[in-house]
Design a protein that fits this description.
Blueprint: H1 5-14, H2 16-21, E1 44-54, E2 58-63, E3 68-73, H3 75-79, E4 89-94, E5 101-107
Parallel strand pairs: 3-5
Antiparallel strand pairs: 1-2, 1-4, 2-3, 4-5
Length: 124
């Protein structure tokens, strides 16, 4: 850290390239325009059951409405090593842009009731 003008003079003699490459702000700081935080569309939450297992933790899932989509495991399930087998009931987030692909976010235990999804940003 340069504390005095003599340190700066010494640095100029020893390393002139470092001084030349230093950027200086000459004008006032301009704030960036604010961008709305919620620009992404919320994923659709649907329920289904695993029909087929593919390599690299990809699954064929039949939704409650009869459609079949391709889904992969969410990172939280990978981290906790949740095993998913054919026949398991799962909750899936589907992108509104591609309704044929989704992310498995929860595996229901045998006989477990559907949980109420908690939406962030909304008050109860």
């Amino acid at each position: 850290m340069l504390r005095h003008s003599r340190d700066l003079a010494l640095l100029k003699r020893v390393c002139p390239i470092a001084i030349r490459n230093r950027t200086r702000r000459t004008g006032p700081r301009v704030s960036k325009p604010s961008v709305p935080q919620n620009t992404k569309e919320a994923p659709l939450e649907v329920f289904g059951s695993i029909k087929q297992v593919f390599p690299s933790t990809t699954f064929s899932v039949e939704l409650d409405n009869g459609h079949v989509i391709l889904a992969h495991i969410a990172g939280r399930l990978r981290r906790h090593r949740i095993k998913i087998l054919p026949g398991d009931r799962v909750e899936i987030e589907v992108s509104p842009y591609d309704l044929t692909k989704g992310r498995i976010v929860y595996r229901y235990r045998a006989g477990e009731e559907r949980r109420i999804p908690q939406r962030s940003g909304q008050l109860p």
